[in-house]
Amino acid sequence: MYYSIEEMLEFIDEPNRSACKKLLGDNRALFQTVQGSTHNHQAWKGGYWDHIQEAMNRGVFYYRIEEKETGRRYAFTLSSLLLVLFVHDIEKPWSYELDEKGEARRKPDLASKATQHEFRNQKLKKYAITLTPEEQNAMKYVEDEHNDYTNKRRVMNELAGLCHICDVYSARVGHDCPRETGETWGSRLYKK
Predict the structure, then answer these.
(1) What pLDDT, on a 0 to 100 scale, did the predictor assign at position 189?
(2) Which of 72-76, 107-111, 152-156 has the lowest mean pLDDT?
(3) Greatest CA span in the chain, whole angstroms?
(4) Taking the model in full, what pTM does it have?
(5) Would you say 142 and 160 are in contact if contact means Cβ atoms under 8 Å apart?
């Protein structure tokens, strides 16, 4: 089943569920019109919405298939997974501006990872979205371990790892998904 963002927010535990619904409600028009990136993935009007929805659906899929097919249980909840995936790129709707050619580019004040991280933290605070230490780790490393990688200890926790997989899948494998309005898992699987 392919869920809407609204349906997946229902899987998030309170009080973050209500906070995420408020964030979505206050910014729906922006989320549904801004592109997902400048060039690499879901780079069309509304692509941000499509990227978040695709990454969250990947999360539901991987979470459920792991338990069903292997009997293994993750050390984190589906709620935590969906919360992080919903807010992992929350700065993006405010990050882009059009250049003189009409192409999207990052605004200079949100061009660095540090300023993006600070903006995300401010949005989370504004909407009273609270993250556990595990969720904070996932937010920090959803895109990679970057310069924090070491072979001496694990930096990215399990939640961060699965969030990273979902984000990479959406941005690199499914970078052009969804391809049509109303697309479902079944309609995509063997379509060219």
Answers:
(1) 38
(2) 152-156
(3) 54
(4) 0.86
(5) yes
Structure tokens at 127: 């909407």
pLDDT at 30 over 70: yes
AA letter at 169: Y
Token couple for 128: 């009273």
Q: Are 45 and 174 in contact (CB under 8 A)?
A: no
Distances from the Cα of 84 to the Cα of 121, 140, 185, 187, 192, angstroms: 12, 10, 22, 27, 31
Cβ-proximal residues to 18 (8 Å cutoff; 6+ apart), any chain: none
- Residue 98 phi/psi, 5-degree rounding, is -90, 135
Query: 114-143 b/e with 16+ CB inside 10 Å = b?
Result: ebbeebbeebbeebebebeebbbbbbbbbb
Average pLDDT over residues 119-147: 91
pLDDT score for 169: 84
Q: What is the DSSP string of 139-155?
A: HHHTT--GGG--SSS--
Query: 158-172: per-residue pLDDT in tens?
Result: 999 999 999 988 877
